[in-house]
């Protein structure tokens, strides 16, 4: 279908303010500014900052508790941002909506970013965060038998790989606009290479910033290239129609189904990358994110 009209206006606004050669510091501030402008929130959700053990020192994290929650399913959440930007504050609104609509206790993780911390620092932190949350699940009010992991964009790629390296430890995975084959050349990468918020130049720039271990398409960076997908948890995969990484999510869903993994894949018509975090800028994004949360909460509650 055509681009959502609010998406079109947002892209026009972004095009007016875009300049080539933007610095990483400017990109990081731009992402923080976009989160403020989007105004995505859920006021009924309480938060508490945490510290989790990490492989190179303490990891900052934030616990989101929906109103009236007495404990139950939990979600370890890994933010997007190309592994070079993003953090607890840029994805605060997203995590609030996930917690409220899904009736989930969400733990958002502030993993290390490149280029200051080259890949696989982010993945190492994600693995440690999952282990840390599982170890203190009772104290966090999380049922360890109903602990999921998820993320968006590059964070969803991390979540997918954590599932591959921690088989049997995770109830379900939530992948929103996932980057699963950054070295790939899928048709959507060509069709939407420019002008759809996430562009090919940014993807390549972020990849270069991730350091020498990201130069090769290993499964640790590109989970779609993992040969064995058996034994993975049920997956909920959400992609956007006008997103350069759309086909990676679709291909992963197909491979998971072929491996016998319960998988549901939804392509959100008329949407672009990060539509779920654009709040009042793209009004359809908020109800879609709420439905994503409700569905994933129900998936976690289906655990025996």
Concise summary:
By secondary structure, this protein is α/β, with parallel strands linked by helices. The protein has helices at residues 5-17, 24-38, 92-102, 121-135, 137-140, 154-165, 187-191, 200-209, 246-258, 285-301; strands at residues 46-52, 59-65, 72-78, 105-109, 142-152, 173-176, 235-242, 263-272.
End-to-end separation in angstroms reads 39 Å
How many separate helices? 10
What structural class do the secondary elements suggest?
A: alpha/beta
Q: Can you tell me the residue ranges where pLDDT is under 50 for at least 5 consecutive residues?
A: none
The fraction of residues in strands falls at 15-25%
Main sheet, how many strands, which sense, barrel?
8 strands, mixed
Query: In the CATH hierarchy, what is the class?
Result: Alpha Beta
Order of helices and strands: HHEEEHEHHEHEHHEHEH
Overall pLDDT score: 96
CATH topology: Rossmann fold
Tell me the domain tally: 1
Basic shape: globular
Number of strands: 8
Radius of gyration, rounded?
A: 18 Å
Order of strands in the sheet with the most strands? 1-2-4-3-5-6-7-8
Helix amount: 25-40%
CATH architectural type: 3-Layer(aba) Sandwich
Query: Can you identify the CATH superfamily?
Result: Alpha/Beta hydrolase fold, catalytic domain
